[in-house]
Amino acid sequence: MKIASIKKLVNLYDVEELKKAEESFYAEENPSIEIEGDDLGEKLTHVLAAIDIKRDVQNGAKLNEAIRSFSQRVRSSIS
Hints:
Helix content is 72%, strand content 0%. The chain has helices at residues 3-12, 15-26, 40-58, 63-78.
């Protein structure tokens, strides 16, 4: 998971475009947007993270706060 790649997705695409990309992965198709990542799993992780962060921003959080909150949730889930 690369925060810079996630932040790029958040800045370039809206939630609907990101959801379509997510659905493309589940349908084993190539998404219509460019997603950075070493493999399909990492790319899907970036899309899911961007959706989560984008929703937080839409609910009033600042971008950096939403990224920090997401990162904290990930860290707490794996520790």
